[in-house]
Every structure is written in structure tokens, then in C-alpha cells.
Amino acid sequence: MQNFTYSIPTTILFGRGQIQNLGAQMRALGSRVLLCYGGSIKKSGLYQQVLEQLQQAGIAVTELAGIEPNPRIESVKRGVELCRAGDIQAVLAVGGGSVIDCAKVVAAGVSYPGDTWDIVLDATKIVHVLPVASVLTLAATGSEMDCGAVITNLQTHEKLGTHHPDMRPKFSVLDPTYTYTVSKWQTACGTADIMSHILESYFTGVQGAFVQARFCEGLLRSCIHYGPIALAQPDDYEARANLMWTSSLAINNLLSYGAEVAWSVHAMEHELSAFYDITHGAGLAILTPTWMEHVLRSGRADALAVYGTEVWGIDRDLPQADIARMAIDNTRRFFKEDLGLPGTLGEVGIDGSRLEEMAHKAAPLLATGTFVPLRYEDILAIYRASL
Amino acid sequence: MQNFTYSIPTTILFGRGQIQNLGAQMRALGSRVLLCYGGSIKKSGLYQQVLEQLQQAGIAVTELAGIEPNPRIESVKRGVELCRAGDIQAVLAVGGGSVIDCAKVVAAGVSYPGDTWDIVLDATKIVHVLPVASVLTLAATGSEMDCGAVITNLQTHEKLGTHHPDMRPKFSVLDPTYTYTVSKWQTACGTADIMSHILESYFTGVQGAFVQARFCEGLLRSCIHYGPIALAQPDDYEARANLMWTSSLAINNLLSYGAEVAWSVHAMEHELSAFYDITHGAGLAILTPTWMEHVLRSGRADALAVYGTEVWGIDRDLPQADIARMAIDNTRRFFKEDLGLPGTLGEVGIDGSRLEEMAHKAAPLLATGTFVPLRYEDILAIYRASL
């Protein structure tokens, strides 16, 4: 196990009706708040509830509305200007990961004098972050409890992550009932995203990270168990609750502390989303099994076999290579059949024309520290095998 | 899953050499510090390292030495007086759970005007707690990351827990190498204590706490895997590291949030320690399998069977009752044969003479909310079956 400094100070208000604590919690962070959201919370009625809570707490609200999926740097810049103009003290995101990510970089951008895109390209330029909080409406990115944010620049075809300890939300409201109305597609993509976060930590070269590995397996099993239930029965509270709590624990550093590894599939997927604006979780579901085949070819059947027995319950007495093969097949089948996600790039409208370009962009981000090496030609082969 | 408010703000400095950060971390909490310890840190050399760190950081140190296992209220009172006399700003515990527990109640007692035993009997009387930090030398109680403390009053034969959110340490240094010199006996007792903490959360009546249950199983497997390794090879870093991190995660609320249940075995064991001053972990190892037999008699073979398949890898295709029986046998055998702990009360010098008295004391503490009911006669039967 590696040395680590554990610090996860986010307060999580989990469960039905926790919105009633929003006003008091938010007031402790500031009396002038930027409220960030996409569009759906106006339809669901959550917008009104949030506004009432903030108003009852005597908070002056400025709104940044219309934040898009794969949030754009233009939205972030709009938020930064609003914060400066309104002397905003804290930022509240109400929505899924895109809204929260946007809110985080707004909060970090206010005190940065240069072009806000700079702090996405180089997180070390972040000097001060306004307090951030969230009300979560989608179990997926884990942004509600982590330090990271992913922002898209469509002009430069870049989708990049930035992070800072102070971007971790001070508190997040996690009410599983808010996800009852999440579409089947978004539920499936969210579940694939959660699973990918876990897998990125699980496949580590660090020896002796036993506790972390067992936690990864538990959370993967939560996704495998409850993902299909949430699809079949969108208002199953336990399914939505476990998926939501799993989304937060998957990426809040609990799994990675002591077992740090450079991520593999996310960087490859971010190129797909940056070039084609596809849904992140769908891209992950397509690339993950193909990446696992690369892991197998790279001689790590051992790690895939542990994954197979502990997560999928495959018989330990089978030959290691068979278990590894079955684990990959189970993963592909789960994404495609149980979650109903696309299995190939062709199904999301991506052809072979720009694979080299994307592989060139991804390669430098994957140059060191991944579980198995991912050179340009490996990445290109994974893209091609995913067509 | 139940509603919960997650808040675990303790910073953990984990790994070899983390003591080098002690001075700076402590200085942020205060410049006049009460240093609490037992005796062993003077032998190991840790005392000198700690003192150097504090002195280099310009901290004035007052010492509370000689804190005993099953810490006594008299030691707490001595610490409270020292804090008042020295206008102490923060409390640093260097040791195992007994030292940390004592330090916590000292920190809570300073501002309490009445008899300090009052705040053990009634945690709601705690109004203000000095900041607490710890350097851990024993993987067992989890006090380094939780809100609780257990204090013994030998005059009244009471060993009782108290808790307050502000008693959770601000930071704890967890260097697994400090546990290399822990004796086989203490290593075994610590492992049993950790396992009991996990089991107390694992056997819950709350439905749908899937994530919590899988985490419990992962941590139990860590104890089962690494406990015997640490006994056989006391300086095995990965064994000591996993046991240490498991001790903290077992009881820091991660497992209990959303799955709250009143604990069973701890309250029964506390009577043994209060009457006979035996080592807590040994008492837990004796009572746990006997309590599980009571669980089985109470009709909860289902829960024991999940425990059996997921923790002990027992074949799922066997009849439920057989799996449950085997799970209990495995538990008893593990404590006795793999950890070398006593299997009966007789082995720790407890005879049948005071069982009724202890059962009378334990019964009110177990009156509501336990996994299966524990009336006076149930407790007495468990004690008797453990003789």
C-alpha cells in the first residue's frame, strides 16, 4: 500500500427529504449565491424547492442556467462573469455531474485573472476557490464528493479534467428520489460511468492494496445488482439509493488512496466525447471491454481473473485465462444486454475517419503510470477494435 | 437504506514516516498541547520523535503519562486538571485506543464544570471539546477516526461509551511500522476487536444497505487474511497496513451510515472488562460465536448464511442452515486457532459467580434496536454458554 493523506471533508445529506436542510447549510457558506443548473430541474419542480430554501434562508440568488451536458468552457466563463458582477460568495450546483463540474470551475475561475481555460489546462494555476455545494439529480460522475471537474472546449476538440482540493463540495444533498425521473438511457450511462471510475482504481499495479480492492468489488457488485433494477423499476428506492451512494464512493478517493494509478479508459473516452459529443458513459461502455482485451494481451490475466471471481462469481477452479476471458465477456454482455448500451463506436455514429487524430491526442495523457502501457498504437488498436 | 448525514472530516496521514508532518499539523491546532500516552512509547523511541516534532513546531507540551488499558476515569480527571492548569489548547494522544479514548474525554471534560464521569454517563452534557489528534500505535479500536470513547469506572464496575462529533480527531498519524512491535496477544486481540466492530454494523435489520454490507465483508476478509500474517511475520508491512486502515474504516461510521443498528456483543463484553479487567478483544472473541448461535436460534440463519458465503467463501449451494452453522464454526475456529485467542470465559479467569450481575447491568443497554432481541435471560444464556 502506498502512503496517502486522506481528507474527504464533504458533508453528505443523504436520503428522502434532505432538501429541507439546504437553506441552513447554504447560508453557512454565504449570503450571495450563484445557482447553477441545466434545464430539467424546472420541469421536475426541484428548482422551485431550491429557490424557496434559499430565499427562506435570506440568500440572494444569481442564476447560471442552461449548462449543457459535457459542459463548455463558454458556460464556465459566463458563470465567472456573473460571480464577479454579483460579488458572489458561494456556488450551488443543482443537477448532475456536468452542472457540478461547471460550478466547480466557475468557483475556481473567479479569482483567476487570465483566460479561464488556463485553469483547466493547468490545475496548479488555481489559487482560490469559492465554496461549492451541490444538490445531485443523477448518479454518475461522483462530482458531488470529489475534487475534479471535466470541461469541454469544442473549438480545440479538448475535453480535459482539472482538480483542486478546494473544489470538493462542502456539502451535497443526495436524495435518491430525484433520480426516479432519470431516463433509462441516462441511468444506464450513469451506471457505466460509475463502474468505469471503480475499474480505473481497481486495476492498479500497487501491491497490498487489499482493502481498496475489496471495496472496489463491493461497489462494482452494487452497480451490477442495482443498475438493471433501476432500469426496470425507475422508482425502486433501494436501487436508486445504492447507485447514488456508489457513485459518490467510487471516485471520492476512498478507493484510490494508497493504490494510486493513472486512469486508462477515461482519457481515451474523453477524445470521443470531445470530437463527437457523445454521452460519456456510452463511450466508456464501448471502450471498457476492448481495453480489458488489451489488458489480457498485455499478460495481466491474473488481475482479470481476480475481477472475474470476486465481482462476477466465476468459479475459482477454472484456468486463469478462462476466468479472465469470461470476466471480459460478462462485462461486455452486462453493458450491452443488461444496461442496453451501445457495443460499438458505429452505433454512436463514430466511423474510422478520425481515430488516428484522437489516438494522437490521447497518447500524451496516457504516457505514464497506467495499469498496462498504452502507447499510440495500443490506443489506436483499441479504438479500431471498438468500431 | 436509512437517511444519514455523512461527516468524516478527520485527516489521516497514512504510511511510513508520516510522523514528519506531526509538528506542522499539531501547531495548526494550538501552541499549548497536552501529550497523552501510556508507557510503551518511551521504550520504542516514538516518545522522543513526537517530542522533537512538537518542540520544533514551537509547541509547549504538558504530559499526561501512564494511561492504562481500559482507561480509568481517574486518568481522565488528572488530564482535565492538567488542561485547566496549563490553559491547554489541544490534546494529542500517542498510543492505542485506550490512550486516544482517554484523551478525547479529557478534551471534552475541560469545559464541563461538574464531575467528569457525568459526561461518560450522559454524552448530551458535552458542550465543548478541545481539538484532539492522535498518533496510532495499535490497530484495534478505531478511536483514531471515530467520535467515541470508552471509559472504565472500577468503583462502580462500569465500562461505558460516550461520544460527540467534536471528539473525532482532527488528524491521526497512521504509520503501520509502529505496530511491528505489538505483541502477538495484542495483535490478535486488536484483530478480534476490529472484526467485532464490523460485525456489529454488518448484522443490521436495515433493508437495502447493500453497499454497506459489501464494505463490511471486504473489511472482515482483510482481518481474516492479514491477522494470521501479522502474527507469523510481525514486520509484514502490507499486513500491518491493511489491519491499520481496516481498524479505522471499521468504525468511523462509513459502515453504519444508512444501516444503523444497536450493537450487541460490545455491550455484553464491556461488562466482562468492567468486572474482571480482561482485554476487550479477548472478551469479544469469546462472546461473538456464542452470540451468533443466539442469532441462529432467533431465526436469522439467512443473515448468517450471507456472512458465510461472502466472507468465508462457503458454497452457496449448501442448505442455508448448514452455511450458517459452518460460518459460526469458522468464526470460532479463526479466533481460537488462527489468532490463538481464548475460547471460553474460564480461560480468562471468569467463573459463573457474577454472570447474573453482569447480565443485569448489560440488559438495559441492549433493550432496543439490536439485530435480534437480547433480553436479560438471553444475555445470561450467552454468558453461560461461553463459560
TrEMBL record, chains A, B:
A GO CC term assigned to this protein in UniProt: cytosol
Origin superkingdom: Bacteria
The keyword Nucleotidyltransferase belongs to this UniProt entry's keyword annotation: no
Domain Alcohol dehydrogenase iron-type/glycerol dehydrogenase GldA residues, every copy: 9-176
One example GO MF annotation: alcohol dehydrogenase (NADP+) activity
Keywords noted in UniProt: Oxidoreductase
Gene3D superfamilies membership: 3.40.50.1970, Dehydroquinate synthase-like - alpha domain
Domain called Fe-containing alcohol dehydrogenase-like C-terminal: residue spans: 187-386
Keyword Zinc-finger part of the UniProt annotation: no
PANTHER family named in the record: ALCOHOL DEHYDROGENASE YQHD (PTHR43633)
UniProt name for this protein: Iron-containing alcohol dehydrogenase
Lineage, broadest ranks: Bacteria, Bacillati, Bacillota, Clostridia, Eubacteriales
